[in-house]
Amino acid sequence: MVRVGIVIGSETDRAMIEPALTVLQDMGVDYELSIISGHRNPARAREYGMEAADRGIEVIIAAAGGAAHLPGILASWTTLPVIGVPLPATDLKGLDALLSIVQMPGGVPVACVGIGKSGAKNAALIAVQIVGAKHEEIRLTYCKYKLEMGEGLV
Amino acid sequence: MVRVGIVIGSETDRAMIEPALTVLQDMGVDYELSIISGHRNPARAREYGMEAADRGIEVIIAAAGGAAHLPGILASWTTLPVIGVPLPATDLKGLDALLSIVQMPGGVPVACVGIGKSGAKNAALIAVQIVGAKHEEIRLTYCKYKLEMGEGLV
Amino acid sequence: MVRVGIVIGSETDRAMIEPALTVLQDMGVDYELSIISGHRNPARAREYGMEAADRGIEVIIAAAGGAAHLPGILASWTTLPVIGVPLPATDLKGLDALLSIVQMPGGVPVACVGIGKSGAKNAALIAVQIVGAKHEEIRLTYCKYKLEMGEGLV
Amino acid sequence: MVRVGIVIGSETDRAMIEPALTVLQDMGVDYELSIISGHRNPARAREYGMEAADRGIEVIIAAAGGAAHLPGILASWTTLPVIGVPLPATDLKGLDALLSIVQMPGGVPVACVGIGKSGAKNAALIAVQIVGAKHEEIRLTYCKYKLEMGEGLV
Amino acid sequence: MVRVGIVIGSETDRAMIEPALTVLQDMGVDYELSIISGHRNPARAREYGMEAADRGIEVIIAAAGGAAHLPGILASWTTLPVIGVPLPATDLKGLDALLSIVQMPGGVPVACVGIGKSGAKNAALIAVQIVGAKHEEIRLTYCKYKLEMGEGLV
Amino acid sequence: MVRVGIVIGSETDRAMIEPALTVLQDMGVDYELSIISGHRNPARAREYGMEAADRGIEVIIAAAGGAAHLPGILASWTTLPVIGVPLPATDLKGLDALLSIVQMPGGVPVACVGIGKSGAKNAALIAVQIVGAKHEEIRLTYCKYKLEMGEGLV
Amino acid sequence: MVRVGIVIGSETDRAMIEPALTVLQDMGVDYELSIISGHRNPARAREYGMEAADRGIEVIIAAAGGAAHLPGILASWTTLPVIGVPLPATDLKGLDALLSIVQMPGGVPVACVGIGKSGAKNAALIAVQIVGAKHEEIRLTYCKYKLEMGEGLV
Amino acid sequence: MVRVGIVIGSETDRAMIEPALTVLQDMGVDYELSIISGHRNPARAREYGMEAADRGIEVIIAAAGGAAHLPGILASWTTLPVIGVPLPATDLKGLDALLSIVQMPGGVPVACVGIGKSGAKNAALIAVQIVGAKHEEIRLTYCKYKLEMGEGLV
């Protein structure tokens, strides 16, 4: 069952989000990857946000560069936790995306991670933590990962 | 007839947008001021964006601080020109809002002006220029303003 | 039962974190507030991180200014989700804290929110979302909040 | 009939402005491209600004890097709307150009877009919106573009 | 005889430029202070730049905030050395003005000093150095100032 | 006898720290290089910090990129001087690491040097100065280096 | 016997350096405070740097704002360790001083601490660590301070 | 006769300063190029600064990256005008050098130009303006250059 919905704004962002896919695969957490531009196709973003919880999605990861409104837009349409990944897609190297994602107004939270691939990896790990809050076996998988990391195994 | 739609995200942004209101009043361009949070009430923002052109609005001015997605969200829902005013509402003094507004992805334009009250004034002047593209008397009003400014009268 | 552990580095950060406390109180999510300097008393931070899950804490919120290592330090000692709130405690107005919190290395995630009080509020909301992943009544409380926000009631 | 005047400061900026040319060509809006350095040849910039409206130009797009005064200089000499495109021409990667263009003083507006090629594309789209305010067929072309973008066709 | 022409964009910048006036008075270098907005009244700025050398001006000091094009505009119209003083007139605290002044394109130099009053003082000292290149008694006055500064007298 | 303990967070940082190794070798100051991630393996970092002085280490050099908590974490566990080297490991080119290292809270000092290889070299030189405070022959080696540098020999 | 030489560029910087004085007094480390402008009186700065070691000074702390060359200038004239404290003396709030102090070229190290009073306190603590490398009783004083800090006593 | 003294800190900066050499050669202004590190060899920098005027030098151009103290150090030792060129020699791409050069304290001026090669070119042009203040034929050469630039010939 798909528990994590990953959304990127365009095909060109796929490489950046790869580390998130790897983490979820390795930890056995089902996910889906959608390409939805919050600005070019706001109706699709709205639909995605409004239906995600009903479809069983438990967490949304949204990655975007530049003005990077996608995580905030999805957060406005859903009650699910939204994790935003700022991408270094412009000449400002992700500083623009970082500020656009992290400085959300009080009331509509987005959980922001670091710029680029490290951030994508951590976004997936936060998603696993959140999914793990409900699903004990996933929580244990995360704990095992943490232990192995301490031992230098991952 | 209302030609310029001004949107702010909350009552607290009103003082910052005042210079825009003054310009429009002085130049005889009708406007309306709406308070719509793009994140707290995305349905209202969507409705505003989708209906604005049909209601006769010719230009939208949207001011916002922090992540400042409002102008971009409205731009995603309308074919009207959208002018974004970054507000210095956070500890980052509007740098966050500036980058969030100006770095829009190719395809969904927002015309960005400077941070704060000077920006608000200029947003109104751009709105007047755009409205003036269609309405000759408003174009002439703008030309007169420009002349008087050169003479130090305004 | 205490589900959210809030940690600040010193008494002077208390005012900044207030909005988080208000959110949790309003939503009926029990929390505790601890003052632990990750640098001055790393043993206490370690102890807190290692014991939090066993004590029933489900999410940790850590707020810090300047170098702002506290969220990352706690994240290194726990498998719980850690939400970091950058505080504008220095002349750099929180930009230092933001980068120190958000740019965590891949493998040890911290979920970062905006600088200062808005961020603190959103940190609490994310905590509620995460706690709500497990506790249905809290999830419903969050959904109700979201609905009321859309109606301008909160 | 030429409706959009595009100005760059030197031949080396041509590649950056290409996306604007493509948009205007695709939408059937006539334009001209001029190379005028506002600083090296201020007399030519003045002449361009003063005569643009009389020559039938309806909007000016000016792209520049570094100190990037060109859009502001043209705006000082014309009553036409001026759209400024900051270019990443220096070691500061366009941040200098962005601030130089967007922070215009109240009274002399420039509509700023994002840094580089995405900005150039959006500058053209804003130009089309403005020209479309007067010319219904161009407005419809823009609306069609917007619709197709929503459907992923452009 | 007036040797240094000081130009500010508006009356509100006068306090910031005061230290420059004091230096020139103390060193016995005649100056004039003009208020000319490069953007609001480009014709006046052009006239000033074109006539300055003929009027006997030997150096121009121009102070401006925000987009701060004034020094560059004057430099485009004159062969005299132009010293630019960035003013902290906006929410960006002079960083915008600094970049707008200092990042001039190759071929049209502006000598930039620090932001605000310290910069204004140093602009006057550079002006004295330049005037002193031609007028021996002024050069000696500067040397005396330098000596006294080393002795802590000024 | 090992007097300088150098710590990096991962194998990938080794090239950046090379100049420090060269300085210490050239000056005959024994060192050890350890790879310890402060976040992935906080227990190891704690152990290192707590035991370093007892093992005879006199100064610690810690290099890290991104959130760069390593120097601060080590400083929290030891009474030895800690020198932090910010590395340009992310899209923010070391600005993040710099602020994370240098903005330590009052009470827990880290001596920060420049970003990257120049910083690494200087970190080693500061380490030599500190070791030289106790060991006269090393102090003299540093003085000789300084003299030769003045003569352009090193 | 004076072991720590503290240098500030002007009387106005005294308040910022106070926390350093308090630390040294509390820990019983003798110091002297000198006011020497590296730029206004380079001969005095040179003399100070060249004589400091011979006068028994073991560490130099130099605090400065703006271009903040003082620590680097002293470092160029001495073989003693130099700790630089960036002060928030300009509109850039110490970011200028931070970069000017921390980005020293390879070969001439300055140990940089945080901006302002927290940095000043930590500069003194690093000085105590360095002096303590040679003087056992001072090293023990620092260890005691560290212990008490962990217990929340200081 | 050598009128312009150009100083760089190391051989590696030579390429960056080339455009300055070209300008001076083209305009027939004699110069000398010296390599002096202000930090590694402060005695040589002092000597250079103290003797430059007596040797007939009329203007000094100093280029440096990173902490970039060289222009300020030379300015402290001479009464000649000093023009500083910030070089993009570090990961911060010249922003560090820019702030270090431009934010000089009141009393010791440095005339700053843009980062890198464009700045180097403009430094030479300012030097020509200053030398031209005294030497009429050089002033005329500059005026001719300015004219030809306006005609697109240079």
What attributes does this structure have?
homooctamer; 154 residues; alpha/beta; 16% strand
Describe the protein in words.
- Chain A has 154 residues and is α/β, with parallel strands linked by helices.
- In chain A, α1 packs parallel to α5 (117-134).
- The mean pLDDT of chain A is 97.
- The first copy, chain A, has a five-stranded parallel β-sheet, sandwiched between helices.
- Chain A has helices spanning 14-27, 42-52, 70-77, 95-102, 117-134, 136-150, and strands at 4-8, 31-35, 59-65, 82-87, 111-112.
- The longest helix of chain A has 18 residues, at 117-134.
- The radius of gyration of chain A is 15 Å and the shape is globular.
- The relative contact order of chain A is 0.18.
- Chains in contact: A-B, A-C, A-D, A-F, B-C, B-D, B-E, C-F, C-G, D-E, D-H, E-G, E-H, F-G, F-H, G-H.
- The interface between A and C is large, with 40 and 40 residues.
- The CATH topology of chain A: Rossmann fold
Low-confidence stretches of chain A: none
Strand residues, percent of chain A: 15-25%
Whole-number mean pLDDT of chain A: 97
For the biggest sheet of chain A, the summary is:
5 strands, parallel
Gap between N and C termini of chain A, in Å? 26 Å
Shape, per Cα inertia axes of chain A: globular
Helical content of chain A stands at 40-55%
Spatial extent as radius of gyration of chain A:
15 Å
Structural class of chain A: alpha/beta
CATH architecture of chain A: 3-Layer(aba) Sandwich
Taking strands numbered 1, 2, ... along the chain, how are they ordered across the largest sheet of chain A? 2-1-3-4-5
Q: Note the run of SSEs of chain A as H and E.
A: EHEHEHEHEHH
As an assembly, this protein is homooctamer
Largest interface: A-C, 40 and 40 residues
Q: What is the CATH top level name of chain A?
A: Alpha Beta
Q: How many helices of chain A does DSSP assign?
A: 6
How many structural domains of chain A?
1
- Count of β-strands of chain A: 5
